[in-house]
Amino acid sequence: MIADLKQRIKDVEQKAAAKELKKSDSVRRTLSIVRGIAKALDEAKAEGNTALRHALADAHKPLSAYLENRGVRVPKPRLPRGRKPRS
């Protein structure tokens, strides 16, 4: 029971820290960039541009990893599967 309460306290503190972090202009702008990359991934898929999709996925991964490490929830994009095309 005590362990459950400690876990809930920890979760609430993490949510509060993430909420405070979302107030930062740079974090909000980064989150909007990640969302924009996700939209561009979908558009590149519709156009059949696989090279662009892989380039966008490579840009998306470090940004979303940073935000997730800070506790900010990031929407999951539809990343390309398969090998990268040769450049």
Can you describe this structure?
The protein is mostly helical and 87 residues long. The chain has a domain of 51 residues. It has three helices and no strands. Helix 2 packs antiparallel against helix 3. The model has no long low-confidence stretch (mean pLDDT 84).
Q: What is the share of helical residues?
A: over 70%
Share of β-strand residues? under 5%
> Average pLDDT across residues?
84
Q: Tell me the number of helical segments per DSSP (H or I, 4 or more residues long).
A: 3
Shape summary: elongated
Secondary-structure element sequence?
HHH
Poorly predicted residue ranges = none
Largest sheet: none
Fold topology:
Blueprint (H helix, E strand, L loop, with lengths): L1 H21 L2 H23 L2 H20 L18
Compose a concise summary of this entry:
The protein is mostly helical.
Summary tags:
87 residues; mainly alpha; 3 helices; 0% strand; elongated
